[in-house]
Design a protein that fits this description.
Blueprint lengths: L7 H14 L4 E5 L4 H12 L8 H4 L7 H4 L5 E8 L8 H5 L6 E2 L8 H20 L4 E4 L7 H7 L4 E2 L5 E2 L7 E8 L18 H5 L5 E3 L2 E2 L5 H7 L6 H7 L2 E3 L3 H4 L26 H5 L3 H7 L9 H14 L5 H9 L6 H14 L7
Parallel strand pairs: 3-10
Antiparallel strand pairs: 1-2, 2-7, 4-7, 5-6, 8-9
Length: about 350
């Protein structure tokens, strides 16, 4: 173990270089003070905008106080990794094809959690080789972390009106990860905001989930409804969901800053099973075994098989009437899951006026 006090300025520069060598697009360093963000979080929770994500409330201030989550933390190294795969079907083309199922672009390939966590571990090992043993812990959506606020403070971008982090040189199509550490590294300057008077993300949201600038009601958000929500989707929100069967990108797709978005160089994020524009009827026909096999190692697993069928049933209810769509829905009308049956019945009712006369 080294007994020499590290040159922390040089170490910070090395960390950023090592991060790029490990496949991260950028890294920055921040302190642990998040008082204003904590007040925003507590207000958001008070308004019940977190819906059924009760863990958001259960974690309390550990989310906004890094040194409570990991005692001894004085700095946070934030990293980002671009995820948009080159050659992917254009998002608007899929959204405008009501017979296709839209999957959020981040979820088309391998689940990023393990991949990024492994890279963060390698970054920690490089730091340890340089300075000896030190305190750290890596996070990628694996604990209560205010990752966007920390990344903003580390200079990686600003939090847009849609509550997504935006980078001036790279838009918003990237993942975030953190390395909490006890090393007193020099901190970077926080990013300044550049949304100006633009409100395109607010206006385009299909379910009007962005209730005010920087204020998202998750209970109306399509990403929440199709992934986090485990029960029935509120009936008044089913039609606005359209053909979005796992997540939603509209607020990012419309953002002018995404003209600077960078394609990912990570081959594991490439679309699997043609999910960047597969037909709804084909996806609805997947058995549970097929679903589990085809989504192995993918974020789509998070919704579960019943949630997958629920989401596709809604999309089929919003699809153009056809004998093929009606047949697909009728084939699931007696599904063992009450939740699936409910959404199939809703979809069939939408198509019933178009059924051929008996």
């Amino acid at each position: 173990m080294s007994t020499v006090t590290p040159d922390y300025c040089t170490l910070a520069s090395d960390i950023k270089r090592w991060s790029r060598e490990l496949g991260f697009a950028e890294a920055g360093i921040s302190g642990v003070s998040l008082e204003k963000d904590e007040q925003h979080l507590l207000s958001w929770l008070k308004d019940s905008y977190h819906g059924e994500m009760e863990y958001m409330e259960r974690h309390g201030t550990r989310r906004s106080r890094p040194d409570e989550l990991e005692p001894g933390t004085v700095r946070v190294i934030s990293v980002r990794m671009d995820y948009m795969p080159p050659g992917t079907q254009h998002a608007w083309d899929v959204i405008n094809d009501a017979e296709a199922g839209y999957v959020a672009r981040y979820a088309l390939g391998r689940d990023y959690h393990k991949l990024m966590r492994n890279r963060l571990q390698k970054l920690a090992e490089r730091i340890r080789a340089a300075v000896g043993e030190f305190g750290y812990r890596a996070y990628v959506d694996s604990a209560p972390v205010l990752e966007k606020a920390l990344a903003r403070n580390a200079g990686l971008g600003w939090i847009g009106k849609h509550t997504v982090l935006i980078n001036r040189q790279a838009g918003s199509y990237f993942f975030l990860g953190e390395l909490y550490t006890n090393l007193p590294l020099p901190v970077d300057a926080p990013a300044s905001a550049h949304c100006g008077t633009c409100r395109k993300c607010i206006d385009i949201c299909p379910t009007q989930a962005i209730v005010a600038p920087y204020r998202l009601d998750a209970r109306r958000c399509i990403s929440y409804l199709t992934i986090e929500l485990k029960g029935s989707i509120p009936e008044e929100l089913r039609a606005p969901i359209g053909n979005r069967i796992f997540g939603c990108d509209d607020c990012q797709l419309i953002c002018p800053w995404n003209k600077f978005a960078q394609d990912t160089a990570e081959p594991d994020f490439a679309p699997r099973h043609q999910l960047d524009g597969a037909k709804l009827v084909e996806l609805f026909a997947w058995s549970e075994e097929e679903f589990l096999r085809r989504t192995e190692g993918m974020a789509i697993r998070r919704t579960g098989y019943e949630g997958w069928l629920r989401n596709i049933a809604v999309a089929l209810g919003n699809a153009p009437p056809s004998a093929e769509v009606s047949a697909a829905l009728l084939a699931r009308a007696e599904h063992p899951s009450a939740m699936v049956r409910e959404h199939v019945a809703w979809a069939l009712a939408r198509h019933r006026p178009h059924f051929p006369a008996e």
